[in-house]
Amino acid sequence: MSKASMPTAGKLVACVGLAALGYWVGIEAVSLLKELSRMGYLPPLGAGIGALVGWMVIGPDTTRRDRGGLSSGLKGAVFFGLLFLLSIGIVQMLRLAVRHRYDGPMEAVTDIFGQAIKIGQILADPMLLGGLAIGAALIGAVASWAGGKWQ
Fold it and tell me: What is the pTM assigned to this prediction?
């Protein structure tokens, strides 16, 4: 196995840190999406996506010396946001598909992006976006430090 695919301290710190940040984003999203029905699954979904993005996106950057931790954290925030919105869009599409709101499967698949955009507009709150960007940048810096310290 290559060294980049092995577990490292940087990957662990990025995984745990972004999972915690994702849980917070999920809690904030529930408060912003009150008009949509039953969004209680968002905090665990955010934590899961955060852990995945922390391990697979931010974590490998901690082994490279040429990249700054802040930029890899911001890259992770973008990946997290896109995956989070896409996941919510898929769940919303499945809810509507069970209620027979679509004429065919292609309409349902294309509505995933429509649902994600609609929810993304609601979640475009400065507090949420700023917290995600600052938190992910700090997590990237700490993960980069941990990757250099315990290698």
Answer: 0.88
> Cα–Cα–Cα angle for 76, 122, 114, nearest 5°?
80
Show me where the domains of the chain are located.
3-80+125-149
Q: What is the pLDDT of residues 61-104, one digit of tens each?
A: 876 655 577 888 999 999 999 999 999 999 989 988 888 888 88
3-state secondary structure the chain: CCHHHCCCHHHHHHHHHHHHHHHHHHHHHHHHCCCCCCCCCHHHHHHHHHHHHHHHHHHHHCCCCCCCHHHHHHHHHHHHHHHHHHHHHHHHHHHHHHCCCCCCHHHHHHHHHHHHHHHHHHCCCHHHHHHHHHHHHHHHHHHHHHHHHCC
